[in-house]
Amino acid sequence: MATLVLPRLALTAGEPAGVGPELLVRLAATSLAANFVAITDRALLERAAARCATSVRLIDDDGEAITERPPGVLRVRHMPLAATEAPGRPDPHNARHVLATLSEAASGSMAGRYAAVVTAPLQKSSINEAGIPFRGHTEFFAEQSRAEVVMMLASPELRVALATTHLPLHAVPAAIDAQSLERTLRIVHQELRAKFGFAAPRIAVLGLNPHAGESGHIGHEEIDTIIPVMDKLHQEGMQLLGPVPADTAFVPAQRARYDAVLAMYHDQALPVLKSEAFDRTVNITLGLPFIRTSVDHGTALDLAGTGKADPASLIAAARMALDLVTRSAADKTS
Questions:
Q1: pTM, two decimal places
Q2: Separation CA 125–CA 132 (nearest Å)
Q3: H/E element, 21
Q4: Consecutive sets of 10 residues in the chain, 334 residues long: mean pLDDT of each?
Q5: Strands, E, within the chain: which ranges?
Q6: 300 near 309, Cβ under 8 Å?
Q7: Are 6 and 35 in contact (CB under 8 A)?
Q8: Of 29, 46, 179, 277, which residue is least crowded by CB atoms under 10 Å?
Q9: Are 282 and 226 in contact (CB under 8 A)?
């Protein structure tokens, strides 16, 4: 029987002054069956390993396939920092380094050098302070791959996709038009089938307003936009539930009725997900031509350099990436 080659997972360290580098070396210390390739500065990883007292063996990545990886082994595609990091204090001089690591991860995945990308958190403000307009990982990868994407956060118990992402609340209603909502629902439906194996996904669509608008008495977005789009897609055979009031969407009786939720804005559903599964929640970008997962937390600047950051979310993200890679490979051979 042929020996299985370990999937090559590209790891990006995110903000050099945050907890990302420490999380990467702690992930490498696990026994997960993956060929981890860290795209970052080699010396940054050495310093991170020393700070969290983690033994790690760094190897220059030669692109070769491997069939086993002892815990603590981490391959590195070296990309130098512009300035040595000071934990807890992001330096805009390193903004282009951070973006270069993301670009390599995306282009390498599209070229087949990596089976998936797993990202540690970055500091958006530091990149913007360098004079580079930047909204986040999700938008960056969408631009790099010229893809229409949807952000989803998933735990073992719940999957939540977002109709809008990093927008101020006052801008949300105008951003939810029929065209964008239909596009989002199509992407979520397709990716639940392709990536998660649901033959006929059931999607709960949340209303934008309290009580899902209460028949137009508390807003008209449901009547004017959400319901017409749902009716159109119902006619094509999609199983859509709603619009569901957000305040009752996550009770146990409702959860049994759907496989995923589409929330209208970032904070409408994510507090529920994170409050019950913070260390097991994974950020997934749907619609990309490659698999990308990430932690569901920020750079934790107050913990950077202490060696105390919990790697559970990054480990969950790596596990999720491996599961998606395995399912994708199985689908191609079936």
A1: 0.91
A2: 10
A3: helix 20-28
A4: 82 97 96 97 97 94 93 97 96 97 97 97 95 91 94 90 91 95 97 92 96 90 95 96 93 92 93 81 94 92 92 94 86 62
A5: 8-12, 35-40, 57-60, 73-78, 116-119, 150-154, 159-162, 202-206, 239-244, 260-263, 282-286, 291-294
A6: yes
A7: yes
A8: 179
A9: no
- H/E stretch holding 194: helix 178-194
What distance in Å separates the CA atoms of residue 154 and residue 282, rounded to the nearest whole number?
5
Q: Which domains does the chain have, with CATH numbers?
A: 1-147+288-334 (3.40.718.10), 150-278 (3.40.718.10)
160-163 LR contacts (CB < 8 Å, sep 24+): 160/260, 160/261, 160/262, 160/263, 160/269, 160/270, 160/272, 160/273, 161/188, 161/260, 161/261, 161/262, 161/263, 161/286, 162/262, 162/263, 162/265, 162/266, 162/269, 162/270, 163/262, 163/263, 163/264, 163/265
8 Å CB contact between 148 and 39: no
